[in-house]
Amino acid sequence: MVGDFKLRRFLLSLFAALIAMTTFPTGAETNKKVAIIIDDFGNNMTGTEEILNLPVPITAAVMPFLSTTKRDAQWAYEKGHDVFVHLPMEPKRGKKSWLGPGVISTDLTDDEIRKRVIAAIDDVPHAIGVNNHMGSKATGDRRVMRIVLEVCKERGMIYLDSKTNSKSVIPSVAKELEVPYIENHLFLDDRNQKIHIRKQFNLILDHLSEKEDVCIAIGHVGVTGKQTASVLKDVIPLMQQKATFVKVSELVNPSLLEEVHQK
Hints:
globular, nine-stranded parallel sheet
């Protein structure tokens, strides 16, 4: 009888293993990672609550000097998300009204740029990194980005390049200054249509299937906020079969983050 029981248990274990082999691998098994950054927090934007209440970690990029800057940063931190400064930077084209206060522009002096970057960082509680809001002109200017990245280095912060400029100088300057640097791969909601946002998540899966271990994608609160939150909530179970959701901080040296939190 004991032998029969052991045999049955062995056969059940073997059957369970065969079933598992026919299902999608989990993110942990594949070592694939997805980091979702959501921009434009800080001005009581549509979708703020829905995004921050998602059951996966995100990175919340919060604009400085706005009506809910501190509230949104604190809220994101309490929910266990990363907090970044969403630094307004000069674009090649666009309305000034889109930028918000404290813009980093190419006509500023070195001292003024430095002063504005420090003030922006100080205005966003719990920030461990910086990314650019707009910024297609500023991120192509070596003088400007050197100052921005020097401040990041002094503060022990990560820089995430949103890649609004294909000729961004950030990679080379960050490498030279030894600033932890990460680059956006795609925008989720550059068009305000659910079907488009869903297609962008399919692109994430395509990116990961092409022997890439990490995909970084940027979405927004505001005009597209509720749509982005709704689609993300729907696709989370499928995405988790393929990859693990992570914060940006999990993609860089952990010792750096200890230093940031001690400041």
